[in-house]
Amino acid sequence: MNWxxxxxxxxxxxxxxxxxxxxxALLSKDSVVKYHPKNPMVVEAQxxxxxxxxxxxxxxxxxxxxxxxxxxxxxxxxRLSLKKFNWVSASAQLQVDIFADYKTQAILAELVYAVATxxxxxxxxxxxxWNLLAEDTSSTDLALAFGFNHDGQLSDFMEFExxxxxxxxxxxxxxxxxxxxxxxxxxxxxx
Amino acid sequence: MKFVANVDFNGGQLRPLDxxxxxxxxxxxxxxxxxxxxxxxxxxxxxxMIDLSVQMAATQRGLMWAIEVDGQMQGMxxxxxxxxxxxxxxxxxDVLPPITAVQQADALSAGIDFLAQKYHLRNFSFHCLPxxxxxxxxxxxxxxxxxxxxLRDFRRTSQTEFSDILVFNxxxxxxxxxxxx
Lengths: 191, 181
What we know:
A: alpha+beta, eight-stranded mixed beta sheet, B: 34% strand
């Protein structure tokens, strides 16, 4: 199975050793990580540790991580992840880390479609879940635009910097009309 | 060392599982409306569950209580996905007749009070099936649980079929971050 994906404008690929600066550049930006929520990285050694964890989680079949390289510039603009693979319930959680300038519906439609296609067709998953903060309205709007359903809230799911965090749960099933339409259209809605 | 405490409630007691509970556990897991049950539940499974319940409690990953009323095991109150750092846990209530809804609610309340006091847990959840779990939903709502989400097709029920899961939460506000008790 080929885990490296090729979309119209991007290489959606696994990371390699030379990607440590790319990972650091991405995850050291508060605007990229604040809605997960996480603190931005402050030293490159954290990116090295993150890369190691990505490999370990993939080898344990717990998660998969892709860096998104823009074909035109070679710049790594995002990281997409499928986490918490549940092979019994055939589900996984989507996570998107992307530079704010690239967080548009057109770009994410291209990227999410590529990863979701792999999830549903190659991994035989049934449910993708996207857990978002309510205040991350650009992401919640995108989730709805792509046909994700708002399933509800996971209250006080975790603690971050002295506050309890609620996650809004969005899901997309491979049987959903939105996904079936995406297959027919060969893509998620770009606008 | 004892990892599962005895907790009294009005008319009964939560207590650790023991070998005498095997037949009751088998009955519980043969009750078709329960999520995760198996028609082939066997005594061996029940015995293994009793052993695992001790390991789970010892490592704070989970906990299983027998609900005893009038000297008889009439159900189980269990914790799964216990996350001590997030002060939360997923719970499960499995009962057998003749335990009443009031007794179930009393048992659940007593368990939650104990877990809040002893382990500072504050976020309690139940995952319920939309059909078949109605009586349990009434019980948990009577002790303050509210539905927060309906996770579509969250649980696989066969090779090709899935069921929604209703998520109920009860959050105790008395434990705030940074508060030392």
